[in-house]
Amino acid sequence: MKKSSNRIKNARKAVKKSLILKQTSFKGGIRNDLSDFESIDSITYHNTVNNSNENSIQKLSNETTVLSNNMKSILKELRYITHKIKRDEYEEEKSLDWKFAAMVIDRLCMILFYLATFVTTCLILLTSKSFYKKSDPDIVI
Fold this sequence. Notes:
With 141 residues, this protein is mainly alpha-helical. The protein is built from 3 helices and no strands. α1 runs antiparallel to α3 and α2 runs antiparallel to α3 (54-127).
């Protein structure tokens, strides 16, 4: 979950930076930092107080409408990205759990295989008649 929260924070910072760059690039429009405002409404209020003529108010309302639409689309994209990151992390966790279970079963099967091989080898050697016979009757042990 830390990965997704860091990715979300980084995405939010990038969006804020791009919005600040867009705001400062408007000619004669909004030229304030985004951190000074809490919402789109405060941007509109602040700029309508500073700009008294009707033309600038109309231009400002058009800019805020565009900005509001851009913010909504950015928010929609951030939600989609967040959902995808969380879903990918969940799938990765599930995959890691299955890999761990497979590793445990693999080790258990390996131990059983070695044990069965050892027991079978001992049984074959101990049950053979030539294992106890002396190969050369002249040799005394």
